[in-house]
Design brief:
It is globular and about 60 Å long. The protein is 30% helix and 26% strand. The chain has nine helices and 19 strands. The strands form five sheets. Strands 2, 3, 15, 16, 17 and 18 form a six-stranded antiparallel beta sheet that branches. A five-stranded antiparallel beta sheet has the order 10-14-11-12-13, covered by helices on one side. With 351 residues, the chain is of the alpha+beta class. The longest helix is centred in the first third of the chain and has 27 residues. Strand 4, helix 5 and strand 5 form a beta-alpha-beta unit.
């Protein structure tokens, strides 16, 4: 019953900011790893050498989602889910079909599906995959299953063989010293919609680190650097006053009188606290004991009582489209509504 309408000149800044922010994020990873700063992000020391090795060898990475606040002025980065972004089915597929059914004359910033197929095709044709047989793993939750299904379908469209399993079905072959699927088959390439910090805390975490060179993990382990909220503070250290960044710190709010505290590994708005001139809003969740960052408060735009957050998708390093979620309050939680968008081509402006 609702949608968000943009003009073409409002889409261009989103695309430019997404490309710029992704590049800046990659530039931030380099000194974090090379200067041995992974500990600042709370990443377990036992994984540091594996992360360093993965960054140096540059294994395949597929996708990520930048969450942006965009109203009057340049888009501002709130966080980057570069490891396990969801709402992919809604953004890549559902809103595109909505556009064809409801407003086929309009356009949409959305080539997410095509970008995924192209990336899988490139990996296959250029020999980057250890095997053209790719395992896909996630937990048994609807959102995770739907997101994983999109990745599987795009891989199949690119000519790859796929196999689905739940993360709990991954086994360890003690004789061969390798990870195996539910049929006992050694895994060579595994896409996992499962956070790296969870993997490292699981009982099979040491086996994963031990055999990391033998398994092609997608997304690679270095992506946990970008999905850590602490990287927002390091970005501000490296690129202060960048128009697409918000001030953020690891040691407190400093001189900010309105700010947001976020757990390093928080997800779906859990344990986020907003301190503003109007109110203090605190969301419960499982990350109450985690370290936090302090980020300048950039309120989401509000339309008819709905707080609007833009998720801008990066596929193979390129901006490929946006998905919009809206919530009743200023924190976007896991029950946020997905709303489609369209834009008016420049040639039709004013008509």
């Amino acid at each position: 019953s609702v949608a968000y309408r943009f003009d073409a000149d409002e889409i261009d800044p989103l695309e430019s900011a997404t490309r710029e922010l992704h590049e800046r994020c990659l530039q931030a990873v380099e000194p974090i790893i090379c200067n041995r700063q992974l500990g600042r992000l709370g990443i377990p020391e036992g994984s540091h050498s594996v992360i360093e090795q993965a960054w140096e060898t540059d294994p395949p990475a597929i996708y990520g989602r930048l969450d942006l606040a965009y109203s009057n002025g340049p888009p501002k980065l709130l966080e980057y889910n570069a490891d396990t972004p969801t709402s992919l089915l809604e953004a890549a597929v559902i809103q595109w079909h909505w556009l064809q059914d409801v407003n086929p004359e309009a356009d949409q910033f959305n080539s997410i599906w095509e970008g995924l197929v192209q990336k899988w095709s490139d990996l296959k044709l250029e020999g980057y995959l250890q095997s053209n047989y790719v395992h896909f793993g996630c937990v048994n939750e609807p959102e995770d299953l739907m997101t994983t299904a999109v990745l599987m379908d795009t891989a199949q469209e690119a000519g790859l063989a796929v196999n689905f399993l739940q993360m709990a079905d991954i086994g360890w072959h003690s004789n061969q010293q390798c990870l195996v699927d539910q049929g006992g088959r050694p895994m060579q390439t595994l896409f996992k919609l499962y956070p790296w910090e969870w993997i490292l805390s699981d009982p099979f975490g040491p086996m994963v680190l031990k055999t990391y060179k033998e398994v092609q993990w997608i997304e690679p382990i270095w992506k946990m650097v970008l999905s850590n909220k602490a990287v927002l503070a390091i970005l501000w250290e490296l690129f202060p006053d960048h128009p697409n960044l918000l001030p953020a710190y690891l040691d407190g709010p400093r001189d900010m009188d309105q700010f947001v505290t976020k757990p390093y590994w928080g997800r779906e708005g859990a344990n986020v606290t907003i301190t503003s001139h109007q109110h203090v809003i605190a969301v419960d969740g499982p990350y109450a004991n985690d370290p936090v960052i302090w980020q300048d408060y950039s309120p989401l735009p509000v339309f008819e009582g709905n707080n609007m957050l833009i998720g801008s998708w990066v596929i193979d390093g390129e901006p490929r489209g946006i998905g919009i979620r809206e919530s009743d309050g200023p924190v976007t939680e896991d029950h946020a509504r997905f709303v489609p968008h369209y834009f008016t081509p420049a040639s039709a402006a004013g008509t």
